[in-house]
Amino acid sequence: MIDTSELEAIAKNLRDASESGQLISPIRDLIGNDNLAAAYQIQTQNINLRVAAGARIVGRKIGLTSKIVQKQLGVDQPDFGALLDTMEALNGDEIPWNEVHQPKAEAEIAFVLKKDIINPSITVHELISAIDYALPAIEIVGSRIAGWNIKITDTIADNASASHYVLGHQPKLLTDFDLVGCKMTMTKNGEMVSEGLGAACLGSPINSTIWLAKTLIKNGNPLRAGEVILTGALGPMAAIEAGDELVAHFTGLGTVSVSFGK
Questions:
Q1: Residue 86: its pLDDT value, please?
Q2: Nearest to residue 63, comparing CAs of 53, 52, 55, 72?
Q3: Contact, 233 vs 68, CB < 8 A?
Q4: pLDDT band at residue 2 using 50, 70 and 90 as cut-offs
Q5: DSSP letters of 102-140?
Q6: pTM of the model as a whole
Q7: CB 28: neighbour CB atoms within 10 A?
C-alpha cells in the first residue's frame, strides 16, 4: 500500500525532473505496474499545483488509443491527461528546445465541446451533438522518465506523457469531413514521418472520446463546454530534434505546423 507521503514524494520527483531536465527512473519501480489509481493520484497532485500557480485546465488528452501500443504496455484501455493553457503552442510558431523532454510528435484530430458531458451512459449521437467543431492538431509528447522506459503507470503519473499541443485555425463541423476515413500525413523537415486514418484511433475519434467522457464522469470531473479534446494519434509517433519543423495535413480538415528552437 502506497501512502500519501510516498505519492507526494514521487510527484515532487516528477516536478523536479520537469524543471531541471534531469530525467528519473521508472515510477513503476515504486508503485508497481498495475496501480493505476496511484498513478492518477500523482498526476492530479502535480496538475493541481500547476493550477494553484496560475495555469488553467483547458481540456484533456487521450493516450494509448493504438491497439499495438496498448499491447506493448500490457493494457486494454487508453489513458488520459490534462491540457493546460501553458502547454499550448501557436500554429506555425516555434517551441523553445529547453521546454521539451525527449520530445516526440503525434498528429491528431481535436474536438472542441459546446456542451457539458455529464450523462454516464452517453451515446454516440449525444456525444456528436455535444461537439462544436474539429481542428487539426499536433501533440508533442515528452517523458520525464529516462530513455522513455515506460509502462502504463509511468505515463499516467507523468500526465500521460504530455508536453505541448498545437491547434490548426480552420474549425470544421463533423459534417464537413470524413471523421473515420480522414487521411493524415505528417512531415518532418519536408520528409514523411507518419501517416494514418481516423479509424486508427480506436476505430474512430468518437470512440476514444466516449471512453474519456464516461471515465471522467466516474471520476467526478466531467468534460465541460469549451474544453478541447486531443482524441489520440492517427499514426506513429515521430522523434524530434532541435531545429525540426513539423507539418501535419488532414484530408478535409486542414493543416497545422510547429517548429522547434535550435
A1: 98
A2: 72
A3: no
A4: confident
A5: S-EEEEEEEEEESS----TT--HHHHHHHEEEEEEEEEE
A6: 0.96
A7: 20
